[in-house]
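ping. complex inputs:
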Amino acid sequence: MIIQAKNQAIEAHNLTVIYNKKPVLWNIDFTLPLGEITGIMGPNGAGKSTLIKAILGLVALDSGYARVFDKKLDEVRDKVAYIPQRQSIDWDFPATVRDVVTMGRFQSKGLFKRMGNEDRRIIDEALSQVGMSSYAGRQISQLSGGQQQRVFLARALAQQAELYLLDEPFAGVDASTEQSIMDLLVRMKRAGKTVVVVHHDLQTARHYFDWLVLLNTSLVASGPSEQVFTDELLRSTYSGKLTVLSRVGDQLRDRNFPVRENGK
Amino acid sequence: MSFQVNDWWILLTTCAVSLCCVIPGTFLVLRRMAMYGDAISHAVLPGLVAAYLISGTKAGPGLLAGAASSGLLVTILIEFLQKKVKVQHDAAIGLVYTFLFAVGVIMVSQFAGMADIDQDCVLFGEIAFVPFDLIAGIPRQLLISTGLLLLLLLALWAGYRGLYLSTFDPGFAAAIGIQVIAWHYLLMAMVSLSTVIAFESVGAVLVIAFLVGPPATAALFSKRLPGMFLLGSLFAIVSSVAGYFLAMALDANVGGCVSLVIGVVFGISVLIRKYLFRE
Ligand SMILES: Nc1ncnc2c1ncn2[C@@H]1O[C@H](COP(=O)(O)OP(=O)(O)OP(=O)(O)O)[C@@H](O)[C@H]1O
Ligand SMILES: [Mg+2]
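pong. complex structure:
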């Protein structure tokens, strides 16, 4: 089931990525809504991270193209913030929390520009929004997983972007941190930002996201969560992984989802 | 044994060479690419010999250009083997540099009569000869290595954020439009240049100690990148001085002694870090 968004933040057409003759993304064609929170879900190796990278132009496409805000990505790069999977970087790097958040103010044109007062104010604000102000001077190797994730989030906030692409921001994060990150994403959405989140937990997916993309190399579904989050579509996304699905099946049978208040 | 002008020349040259190595070496360590340093330090040999043969002198920009281009050749060949031929990363490095080094060694033995180089000098270098090759009363090696140090500092200053970001988080860097590959090649060029300089003084086998030792030691104690550069430089100078005096005392090869001290400083630092700096 593929439903097109009315106001589109991202559109992808026939995206195909092949690694070593094996397709990782196959003919992906979808649109994601502006100003909403979208979840991208699928089993390990489904190509979720690759999809985000393909949208950002970080991997070579074997066919197709993606547009952001109805423009080529290169024209809107400064409106896009990317949070890579936390494991993708070396946290032993000699940098403080503040150093990392400062990177959010770097721009590819103007790598020599000095940080001004305005930049510093934005960095301070980003740190305080994720509750990391008191850790600003700490080396990043001495953070917990949840704190690392919040530092990444602060760096993205410091970019002051319109579109945020987050690759598994909840991986290895405790429940209360997850909640505070989610609250922040909802606040960003209220401020008109578009947020796209790669997510693994089926239990929470339906409450978190307005829009859902189900992926398993090819696109299984894309549309409003309440229409996409069905037993049948989930089953074809996670083919065979019955342990996961039976729990979700219970959840679906209950049909006792809390009503989402998302200000639509 | 008195300390004379010649000793000063050798000591200063050793320090300059080791400082040159700290700049690219720090990024190599942070990128976990130390093997690239080893690869390039061996693979510059054919470029060096070719430059000797063509220009007939050991001085001048021809030499640097020859070395830099063979450094880039290694980088390109490794990438090619890895991405196009799908050879495993470490295997690609191993194949490329041993091949190029072998070519260099054969060139040396074939043309040794024509250029003023021999195999011992290639493998182990000889910084003790520094004072015998003067330009306007100052050793050529010292002039070149100081010049290169200034050049590397300039590159570091101008390219700091690009090198920093593409080392720390290449995915994020690329997402904001930074040309990660271009910075990779710049770094490899920096490695090649400092390698050439170190090569003549300490030889191919020990260059890697100069590139990786002081930065790896500094990494044990550094909270931020600028601190790592300063500390790495300090370790480089301390090791150079101590190594030099050790060489004088033992009447041994200077490069070897400095490398030995670099290793000892690293070992002591690991222990200090382990037992004194425990948080
Ligand atoms: N650089 C690469 N070279 C070769 N294969 C790759 C590369 N990156 C990813 N792959 C393969 O592509 C597939 C999709 O990877 P991707 O990281 O996009 O999955 P994912 O859905 O994000 O998985 P996870 O849930 O584990 O993060 C996997 O089978 C992976 O092995
Ligand atoms: Mg992933």
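Chain A touches chain B through 31 residues (CB under 8 Å).
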